[in-house]
Design brief:
42% helix; 5-stranded mixed β-sheet; alpha/beta; 12 strands
């Protein structure tokens, strides 16, 4: 046997007993199976199967060879298991907006470069406790202050008033007349909001962005999200004093964990 493909073909043909079943199992043409068996027999200088309408009948040479082939298959399987990276799960705790506009793209990247890593995404506004193992990585809009955290600021974005093109076409610019406003009910924007009264109140940034994107209202949106959603800035001279920040944190004990490092790098690249 010269390679695993020849070994696998011989084993499958021996077990399946027909060219048709072997071809179906390997998802190739029956004629291809026949040609490959012919080449294998020529290379070995032995007849392995007697072919008939009933199927494939192993010759004495094939019977002698099957035990060796199975041992080689077992060794190949053990080798493959040793070569494969260990499957690891990394838990990311983040907000809905950061999950949608940053973490999802990082996961796409990881599927190409590190597909052995499983991701558990915990979308919440509460700060997970890294010390207790609730999450491996935390992504937030406020700086974590817990001890033993490695903390990194990923981005700082201005927050201004934005509307969709569809909203402007329907209601015009907010100079005169009645307009519809969406306001973040509590948290990052409430402390210094540009909007005093609103027709719609939400409690997540992703909900606010979607309201604006769908043309339902004008709202305060961080500049990065506004660009992603192709929104139009309204009254550009009016900007919220408090910027929108993105903070990354992980427990210092995980700094040398290869899976955590891969996920960290993928997230950082998105910002």
């Amino acid at each position: 046997m010269h390679n695993w493909n020849e070994l696998a073909l011989f084993l499958y043909a021996y077990e399946q007993k027909t060219l048709t079943n072997t071809a179906r199992l390997l998802n190739i043409n029956q004629s291809t199976v026949g040609r490959r068996l012919d080449r294998l027999e020529q290379r070995l200088g032995k007849k392995l199967f007697i072919r008939s309408v009933e199927g494939l009948t192993p010759t004495p040479d094939a019977v002698q060879l099957i035990d060796i082939a199975k041992q080689m298959q077992s060794l190949a399987t053990q080798f493959n298991h040793q070569s494969l990276p260990k499957i690891e799960t990394v838990t990311i705790s983040t907000t809905d907006a950061l999950a949608h506009y940053g973490v999802l793209n990082a996961i796409k990247q990881l599927r190409v470069s590190h597909d052995y890593i499983n991701i558990r995404l915990d979308v919440t506004t509460s700060l997970a406790d890294l010390n207790s193992g609730e999450a491996d990585i935390v992504l937030r809009t406020v700086r974590p202050t817990q001890q033993n955290y490695v903390v990194k600021k990923l981005a700082t974005w201005e927050v201004g008033l934005y509307a969709s093109k569809a909203y402007i076409q329907k209601y015009g610019m907010p100079k005169d007349g009645i307009h519809y406003w969406v306001k973040y009910k509590a948290g990052i924007i409430q402390a210094s909001s540009l909007i005093e009264q609103a027709n719609i109140e939400v409690n997540t940034t992703a909900s606010l962005i979607n309201m604006v994107k769908e043309g339902l209202a004008i709202g305060e949106v961080p500049s990065f999200y506004a660009q992603q959603a192709q929104l139009v800035q309204i009254l550009p001279h009016q900007k919220r004093q408090l910027n929108y920040e993105v903070w990354l944190a992980y427990h210092q004990g995980l700094a040398k964990n290869s899976a955590v490092r891969a996920v960290l790098n993928a997230i950082i690249e998105q910002f």
